[in-house]
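FYI - complex with magnesium ion, inputs then prediction.
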Amino acid sequence: MELVRSLYEMLGISGAVNTGDLWGLISLFYLLMASGSLVLKKSDPKIEYKPEPTSTPIPAPTSTPTPVEPEKVEEVVPEKPKVTWGERLRKGLSQSRSEVWGKLGNIFTGSALSEDSIEEIEELLYGADIGPGTVAELMDELNEKLKKEGFGEEQFKEFLFAFLSSKMDGIQKEVSSELYNFDPANKGKTKVIMVVGVNGAGKTTTIGKLATKLTNQGAKVVVGACDTFRAAAVDQLEVWCERAGAQMVRAKEGANPSGVGYDALQQALNEKADYCILDTAGRLHTKGNLMEELTKSKNVLKKLDESAPHHTLLVIDAITGQNALRQAEEFNKALELSGLIFTKCDGSSKAGSAIGIVQQLKVPITYIGVGESVEDLDIFNLDEYLSALLDMTQPA
Ligand SMILES: Nc1nc2c(ncn2[C@@H]2O[C@H](COP(=O)(O)OP(=O)(O)O)[C@@H](O)[C@H]2O)c(=O)[nH]1
Ligand SMILES: [Mg+2]
């Protein structure tokens, strides 16, 4: 009835409410509702309120754009072409080639050689420092060849290669491979390498390179700094040993060199090292004789190992050329050298002097050095050496 009365009020009808009117009003009410003319407001607590849509549309949640990664452009760093040993050797021997061996080829013109040209060849060969005996022998054989038809530059080079090779190959075969290759089957069987030579020949540098090559193969290396005269030389060796991962045994400045060698070998044996390399003095601070001191150093090692040193290597600076021969003979007489190391070939035109020295000393070259870095020292291979010297392709 309350609802009817409020409807009466809305429609402006006054008077009592009767049942007939009531039904009429209810029908009207429904009609109005259905036509949508009557809209109930929120204030009506009994009717659920639905919010009218607002005119400003709520912007659809925009997805935050994921930042587009700039396409990764692989930076192409041009790989430094690795310089092979063959290339280093060729470069190292370039001075000897350009000043001596290369000039020999230029003498050949295609026609028969004149007496003057033959003399020129002889002169160049003397300058190559291969030793006068070798040059005389070579010229004897060459004179015969030069008279023959079709003996040109190519044939001359082939002849030189064969001749020089024959002077060295028998001796070169005697090099023990344990000097270059560490064989794990010999692990802990300490091999002693004593390195000798005059001051400045390249002993310390070569030992540093050698130690690096051996530790790189997994060998345990102990180095003895027996050149106790020069503190700077010991420091120089220490830097190499640290880099190589080798142990170094040193003594106080001025200590007895043979004592350091003994201590180094003792440590190498205690530690079951694979190699014990001894860097010796090239000159003595006392008036004593170097050869006597070195002989003593060599002999004292035998107290610890009867077979030590297993290798006694003489380092020769290529610049010394044939003059190194007298030096080498002196070292050989005192110490019975087992091998030579030919260094600094890069700074000299006399790299050919190796041929004469090997031939006369009858001691093989083990290593050849063509610069100051580790990669600049490698095994001496006769074919490789001669083809680099004569600018030929290496025979297969
Ligand atoms: N260019 C060049 N220099 C070398 C070579 N071997 C050693 N040297 C340098 O020669 C100098 C003397 O070498 P060092 O090892 O101290 O000689 P040591 O007195 O016999 O121990 C050093 O400056 C070395 O860097 C080489 O093969 N080529
Ligand atoms: Mg030295």
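The CA atoms of residues 265 and 276 lie 6 Å apart. The pocket of magnesium ion (ligand 2) is lined by residues 203-204, 227, 233, 279 (CB under 6 Å).
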